[in-house]
Amino acid sequence: MELNNYSGADRLSSHGLAKMEDLTLENIRNWHLEVARDNKYGKEEQLIKRILTRYPQNDDILTVAMKIAVIDVTNSTQLSKHKSKLSLFDIANIIMSMNIDGELDKKLASGNETLVSELARNFKGENGSGVNLFSFASKYCCYHNYFVYGKDDYSIYDNVVATHLHEYPLK
Question: What is the pTM assigned to this prediction?
Fold first, then answer.
């Protein structure tokens, strides 16, 4: 897929942040199209899509590790800064342990509403010595649900959303 060299600079504030608009379905779709056309983010989204559609299941440690790494790098989730507590291998094993009898894949397909929290809890561990990877868990679930199953049951939650969501007026 060939992506255009497109920038939404005309819709950015002097700080490089998107100008505030009403949070409507139409505006969300328009921003999604802008991101898809962007040379940096659009190509990365296509990369995630191609990998997840080629390797949709979570039943092989190498495949799961590859998907984790791609989502981490393309979304700047900075998993490596937590490596002393939770390595890529550990994260892949946690995901694999949640997919006994395809249970995780079934939850991803159905948009299970507790899955993101479940994943985040498992990354943190029973004794709480792990790391809170709620942002990564939201991205892992969202991308699988959207690209593999063609659904939109999950939202991504990260620092950008946490910082700016309150700026949108409630209607």
Answer: 0.80
Backbone torsion region of residue 111, taken as left when φ is above 0, otherwise alpha when ψ lies between -120 and 50, otherwise beta: left
Q: Measured between alpha carbons, how far is residue 96 from residues 8, 23, 30, 90 in Å?
A: 39, 36, 36, 10
- Mark out the alpha helices in the chain (DSSP H runs): 25-37, 41-54, 61-75, 88-97, 103-110, 115-124, 134-143, 159-164
Sorted by sequence, the CB contacts under 8 Å of residue 108 that are 6+ apart come out as 58, 115, 141, 144, 145, 148, 149
For the segment 107-145, what is each residue's pLDDT rounded down to a tens digit? 999 999 999 999 999 998 777 778 889 999 999 999 999
